[in-house]
Design a protein that fits this description.
Elements: H1 4-18, E1 24-26, H2 33-39, E2 44-50, E3 53-58, E4 63-67, E5 73-78, E6 88-93, E7 97-102, E8 106-110, H3 112-121, H4 133-140, H5 147-152, H6 162-171, H7 185-205, H8 217-220, E9 251-255, E10 258-262
Antiparallel strand pairs: 1-6, 2-3, 3-4, 4-8, 5-7, 6-7, 9-10
Length: 269
């Protein structure tokens, strides 16, 4: 499932390519055809992202709510759009660009009130500059649940996925099994600020890189990471490999229905 930086990048891509102009909207697959007909020819006049949820707004109409889920893909092309395959749930196009959505968990036309209800049930998003980390802290500080599980709970913090949770906990030397209530408020605000900075870099570069300059392959004289995930990381998907900092073995275990990665030697606080 894409992490929050990908969704914010998709929002920016729609804004750049389509916002402010009438667009053609269709559903070659047919499952969104009735709603697509209501939007076809309207101006795309708003985009929004919150956590792993993308919203496309149309002038004089409602919002398209997209959640990619585990299998959804949203890709862009330039020039005249080719004939679509029957797997395309939603196509948005103009004379210069097109976007095809395939296999999402959600693609639905919703009202402004329904959109607000989605925002209300989500936690604050580090990429939404007005969001309050204190709202997440109030839940974390009272919880006996592990901080690793809390970071993956979209009702607590929106947009953080398996990569960012593993990496930010390593960067702050926090044991992933520590209960939320055992964090200090200063630790939480440092984690939040770091998440915001890392995820903004993810939006800009369209990939996740979490190692500090002194730990890059060039600085350390080590081979670059080879992984279909891409990006330089400390612990994610590096189980049984040596830690870049201490040389100890990276561990993995299941937690919150996902594989957790951490360094027991470095993450003892």
């Amino acid at each position: 499932m894409p992490e929050g930086h990908t969704i914010h990048r998709l929002a920016e891509d729609h804004l750049t390519r389509f916002a402010g102009w009438p667009v053609r909207v269709s559903s070659p697959q047919g499952r969104f055809a009735e709603s697509a007909a209501l939007l076809d020819g309207r101006v795309l006049d708003g985009v929004d992202a919150h956590g792993k949820h993308l919203f496309l707004g149309f002038e004089g109409a409602d919002w398209v709510h997209i959640h990619l889920g585990l299998f959804g893909k949203l890709g862009f092309g330039e020039g005249q759009a080719p004939p679509p395959s029957d797997t395309v749930r939603l196509r948005v196009r103009n004379d210069e660009h097109y976007a095809d959505l395939r296999g999402p968990t959600t693609c639905a036309l919703i009202t402004g009130a329904e959109k607000r209800a989605i925002h209300d049930r989500l936690g604050p998003d580090p990429l939404r500059r007005a969001d309050d980390p204190g709202r997440a802290w109030r839940r974390i500080s009272r919880s006996r649940t592990t901080i690793a599980a809390l970071l993956m709970d979209q009702k607590v913090v929106a947009g953080v996925g398996n990569v960012y949770r593993a990496e930010v906990l390593f960067r702050h030397r926090i044991d992933p099994y520590r209960a939320g209530k055992d964090l200090t408020e200063a630790e939480w605000h440092a984690v939040w600020a770091d998440l915001a900075a890392l995820m903004r870099e993810g939006v800009r570069n369209n990939r996740i890189d979490t190692v500090r300059p002194e730990h890059t392959p060039e600085a350390m004289g080590r081979p670059p990471r080879v992984d279909d995930h891409g990006g330089e990381v400390y612990v994610y998907r590096r189980a049984a490999m040596p830690c870049h900092i201490c040389g100890g073995e990276i561990r993995t275990a299941g937690l919150a229905a996902r594989n957790l990665f951490w360094c027991p030697a470095c993450q003892q606080t």
